[in-house]
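Sample entry (136 residues):
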Amino acid sequence: MTNKKTPAELLLELDEEIDRLFLEDSMIKPHDRTIHLRDYVKKLGLRIRDDEIRKKIWDGRKRKAGSVEMLTPDMAIDAPEEMWACENLIMQADSNVLVALPKVGKTTLLIDLIAKWHFGFDEYLGQKFQGECAPG
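Predicted structure, serialized as C-alpha cells:
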C-alpha cells in the first residue's frame, strides 16, 4: 500500500507552505518567496510555472489579509435563521429589495407598513408583525 498523495493534497500542502511565508517569524524574505516556492514545488513533485507560483503567493497574501473566499457549489453556507419584522414580507436587520414598476406604490406600501407597525397593529396584509417597531 502506497502513501502517494493526490494532486489536491499536494496543492493544499503548497498553500500551507505559502501561508507559513506570511507569518512574522518566517525566515524567507518577500523577494525570495518565488525562489523558495520553486524549490518546494519541485520537492513535492508538482509542475508549476513561476507565473502560477506568483498567483499562489498573491492568493496567500489575500488569505493573510482576510479576504473572502469565493463560494463553490459544494460548499455549505452557515446562514443565520432569518428574522422577520413583518412575517414573510420584510426581514428585520437585513437588506430587503422591493422591486416594481415606477409609480405603483412601493414607497407608499412601506410607509403604510411602518406606520401600522409603529401604532401597534398586530398584522399587515394578513402577516403578523414580529417584535416592536424601532423608534425613529
